[in-house]
Amino acid sequence: MEILDGFSFKEVVTSFMVLFAVIDIIGSVPIIVSLQQKFGQIEAGRAALTAGAIMIVFLFVGNKILKLIGVDVNSFAIAGAFVIFVIALEMILGIEINKTTEAKAASIVPIAFPLVAGAGTLTTALSLRAEFHDINIILGIVLNTIFVYLVLKSAKWLERKIGDATLMILQKVFGIILLAISIKLFTANFAQLVQNYINF
In 3D, which of 76, 78, 59 has the Cα closest to residue 67? Predict the structure, then answer.
């Protein structure tokens, strides 16, 4: 098959590692456990498959979709930064902004998007396509999807092992980290957006 012609084990590993670092599902464990406590059982398969599908679809049609609706990548990333900002505030302040009460809904938003397949992940996938063959990026996404599923599936076990006191501390710490990521994502893309308009 023509699509397999560009297969490279090195590119698969590199794609996996780059996306793994951006997704940071291990670092998101306190967030996942917090959402599970809030919504009940999270549908791991639904969340992982949705996130994987979003990443693969966006890999091929991301730029076209954004151009079609008149949105650039930087604006898209800024929107994702706002969503991450809200999640971080919930974790740090212990307030409830997202009023969704269904676990199914939580599996899609905010877990599948933007926690896993967020603006950073999607824009990273697009940037990888400029350097690597599609098949290798797809395999990297599939491997990450499997890993995300395993982590989500183990959330109950992780919750028991972590403990309430430790979990509360971790939620605050990771909430601050998440807040910092959202601010960094916002400032970097806002600066690029301003620069684009000035050059225009």
Answer: 76
Dihedral, CA atoms, 73, 79, 85, 87, nearest 10 degrees?
Answer: -110
Answer yes or no: are the C-beta atoms of 115 and 28 closer than 8 Å.
Answer: yes
Tokens of 98: 């997202």
Q: Are 110 and 81 in contact (CB under 8 A)?
A: no
Residue spans of the domains in the chain: they are 9-95+107-194
Average pLDDT, the chain: 81
158-179 per-position pLDDT tens digit: 767 767 677 778 778 878 877 8
3 state DSSP class of 165: helix
Question: Quick one: pLDDT at residue 123?
Answer: 79
Q: Rounded to whole angstroms, what are the CA distances from 88 to 23, 26, 61, 144, 200?
A: 16, 16, 29, 23, 34
| Helix%, strand%, coil% for the chain, nearest 5 | 85, 0, 15
Distance CA 87, CA 100 (A): 13
* Identity of residue 25: I
Identify how many contiguous H helices and E strands the chain contains and give both numbers. 9, 0
Higher pLDDT, 137 or 125: 137
* pTM listed for this prediction: 0.70
AA identity, residue 146:
I
